Every structure is written in C-alpha cells, then in structure tokens.
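A further point concerns the way the authors explain their paired sequence and structure data. For illustration, here is how one protein appears when written out as sequence plus structure tokens:
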Amino acid sequence: MRKIALIFGILLAVLDSRASIGIINGLSHELTGAPGEVIQGYIEVANLGKMSERVTLSASDYSFQSSGEIDYPEAGSLKRSNAEWITISPAFADLAPKEKVRFMFEVRIPDDDTLRGSYWSVFMVEGSAPLDTNVLRGMLTMVNRLRYAVQVVTTIGQTGLRELLFTGVGVHREDSLTLLHIDIANPGERLLKPILSAEIFDTGGQSLGTFQTAIKRLYPGTSSRFTLELPRLPKASYQALLVADCKEEDIFGTTISFEITDD
C-alpha cells in the first residue's frame, strides 16, 4: 500500500506541474462589417504553467439548445457558420513557461447582398505538453489537456430580424430556494444577449420582488434555459412578469403562471 501511495503521489506531482494555458483577450470576439469587407482580429494565449506547452487551434461550428444539448459539428456545416470566411495564422505555437502568443485571424465577408444578421463559429484552442517519461517510464500515464472554445461572431451591419420566444416554464425546490426555469429561443437572425428578470406576484396581486439572471448569448436557431433563484415559496399559485432585456432597445416580455404543489 505504501508503494502504491508513493507512485500515486509521484503521478499527481507530475500532473500538477504540467503547463496550462489561458485565453488573455476573451472567449468571444464580435465583429461587425458589410458584405465584401475584410476584418482582422486575434486570439491571445498565454502559457500559465511551469512547462513548455504546444497550443493548437482548430475550427468548428457551435450550437446549443435549452434541453442541455451542446453540439460542435464540422466547421462550415451549419447554415449560419462563418468558419469558411476565416483564416488564422499560425495554426499552432510552442510556448515556453509564461510566454504569450497572438493568433491573428482575418474574416473575409463574402460580397453577397443577401447576407443578413449574425454568423458564427468557434476556434478550439487546446494545449498539451509531454509527460516526463523519465519519471513515469513503464507506468500507465494520464494526458491532461485543457481546451477552450473561442467564439468568433460576424454581424452584417444592423441587418437581421431580432426576435425571442419564451418556450417553456419549470419550477422545483432546492434547499432554501425555489428555482424558476424559463426556456428562451432565438428564431431571429441576429445574436442577442438577454438578461432575464421576473417580478413575482401572489394570488392577491402582491409583488414578492424582482429577480434577475446573468446575461446569456443566444444565436439564431439556438435556445437556452434561464434559471431564476427565488426565495422558498409556500404552496400556492403565482404569476410572473418576464422581461428579457437585450439592450439596444430590444426588450421582450410576457406573463406566465406557475404553481408550487408541495413543500
């Protein structure tokens, strides 16, 4: 047992000493342009660890639904993918500890007047470094890899329909909280970033307060579940005034009813 513990301790020490990468300038890049325009940007990556790290980039499409499904299909396969518009250089880089690199990218928007709204894809940024084979020779080793999905969005000026739909409601108890789940879909043509707020009313019309979620990104054709943390409500029926504030004068609202059926 002592020998096994010693080997396990060595393995943990090696894994803990492995390099890790960080994205310096954000996990999303939003660019606005016109058909035929060329826009440039960059993804800055740092080696935050103590070992040399190889960083590689690869393109992918990206989609998600309120059911929890997240999909990264082949680049260029989605209708609103901009992956084929983008070139990036370099495709990989070897970083010494604490070193940084900028991966420059160029977005060439097709000269097509039918383009409207937002188009997007992601770059999968992955770091890896070799384990010390002198320490782990003959042992079963683990490869620790860290990967980020960096979103690149291209929106064609002010074009595109802005639209949100409230598609589902759910409620459940968790410890001292009542969690109100609201599913929202974006059937429009532009990226929207709503903050959802809800004012809750009891059966007598008395306001119990206004509650808010963090901001979320909704691409055209995607949906997401927003969760509002309410105080633990007693068994009763309630109404809520929902407001999804997307800024830029894009505000969507509705009223819903929900019921707490047990304590």
The first strand starts at residue 21 and ends at 23. DSSP finds two helices and 18 strands in the chain. The longest helix spans residues 2-16.
